[in-house]
Design brief:
Blueprint: E1 2-4, E2 11-15, E3 30-33, E4 43-49, E5 53-56, E6 62-66, E7 69-72, E8 77-80, H1 85-95, H2 107-110, E9 113-115, H3 117-120, H4 126-138, E10 145-148, E11 153-155, E12 158-161, H5 169-178, E13 182-187, E14 190-191, H6 196-203, E15 217-220, E16 223-227, H7 233-249, E17 253-256, H8 272-283, E18 289-291, E19 304-305, H9 321-330, E20 336-337, H10 357-367, E21 374-375, H11 379-382, H12 385-400, H13 402-415, E22 420-421, H14 423-426, E23 439-441, E24 445-448, E25 457-462, E26 465-469, E27 474-477, E28 480-485, E29 491-495
Parallel strand pairs: 9-10, 9-21, 10-13, 13-17, 17-18, 19-20
Antiparallel strand pairs: 1-7, 2-4, 3-6, 4-5, 5-8, 6-7, 11-12, 14-16, 15-16, 22-23, 23-24, 24-29, 25-28, 26-27, 26-29
Protein name: Glycosyl hydrolase family 31
Domain Glycoside hydrolase family 31 TIM barrel: 123-405
Pfam families: Glyco_hydro_31_2nd, Glyco_hydro_31_3rd
Amino acid sequence: MEFDILPGEAFYGGAVMDGINQPYTQASERELDLTRNQTPNQMMPLLLSTAGRWVWNPDGMRILFRKGRIQCTDGTILGQSTGGLRQAYLGAMEHCFHLHEIRLDERLFSNPVYNTWIELTFHQTQEGVLQYARAVLENGLPPGVLMIDDGWSDSYGRWHFSREKFYDPEGMLSELHRLGFTVMLWICPFITPDTQEYRELEQAGLLVTDRDGKSYISHWWNGWSAVLDMTQPAACSWLKRQLDGLQAMGVDGFKFDAGDSVYYPADSVVAGDTHSKAWAAFGERYPLNEFRVTNGAGGWSLMQRLSDKEHSWGNTGLAALIPNAIIQSLTGHPFLCPDMIGGGEYHNFYGQKVLDHELMVRWAQIACLMPVMQFSVAPWRILSAQDYAKVKQAVALRSRCMPLLRQALALCRNTGEPVLRPMAYNFTESACARVTDQFMVGDKLLVAPILEKGATRRTVYFPKGSWCSECGERYDSTGEVYEIEVGDRIGIFEKESG
């Protein structure tokens, strides 16, 4: 299939990782492979346009943007709605993907989420987890969901607390609950070879195999492991029994990591994207879940995080947060998290005597008005008192804006309309089509963070109407760009009725 891009038309969608390069327009020269998810983040074989059109292929597609035209794989569907980007999204939700019953736990959104990864990495211990949780409270942050990350068990697939690292896990969980925390544990679909679990699962035929029938050993970021075949009901039942035991102990939910298609064999009986989707389907049954990578899971009841970001201002760090989150929203992954504040790429924090304090503050300001705000590196440890106070101000701002966030989240649960929206979703003015450095929360709140190091001013595009800042400044716009002094705050503006 081949068709023209309309004048002024802008396309969004596909791979979340490519959000930094979007939207695609008449000037774009780009080739997309949406046949298999080769990225560490979400992907949907779906594009939406500001002219109310959508491009969809449930089997995946290749797309070429060239000289103002789009060429697509045969079998791709081009749909049309009357209206703009919002109507394209609603049309796609009707014809391409459907909203599941959203059972995500409210606690993922009501307070910040905390993750032990950057502070403890693979050295998770009972003392370390409790120390981290107590430090959250001692330093003036509210309790919330606490994720204990990779390293709490002795091996992958042996989903029991390591008694060497956690001498009294039941007592630890009880204490964390007493402190006000909700506890999630990191898990993955991998099975460490040369373990009792591996032998039992291999004998039962519950591991992913190659086409010769041999158990496949995957090379992933933590080494070499077998893969539990999540397409088999018996394998899902086996894993559920492990997690049932943890929940009986007091664990509240799970972080489902390592669903990357690239770590599953392309030549196996179970294709990588099929297994990735089965992993997500299993995790959807838990109201407290987190996923980093899925394929074709638009509309599912999943909390989905942006992939690990660098501790930087560039396109692999802070600059990617809003553009990539926009693509999450427009491809049916609205319950999103803009990675851990300061970046989730732990190598960036090793051997660094001085981290970028300003980056941490600006990241917190961006995250505080997205659906999920997640800390990992301890801001009270690495920041000056002055900069840490700014981070706490961002948390306080989230609390003040929580009524608007809750309203947008409730609408999203019921209708699928995203919480975080690009400007073009709410406004059909042509100038909105390419704005990806500010966003809307629902219909009323415009968020314009600082994205450049050292900056205290930024341009803000106000669609037609009256807008009021948190400080009471009023902007009566006919669809104009203003340059606004933000200082060390974040620019937020509420649209007045009428």
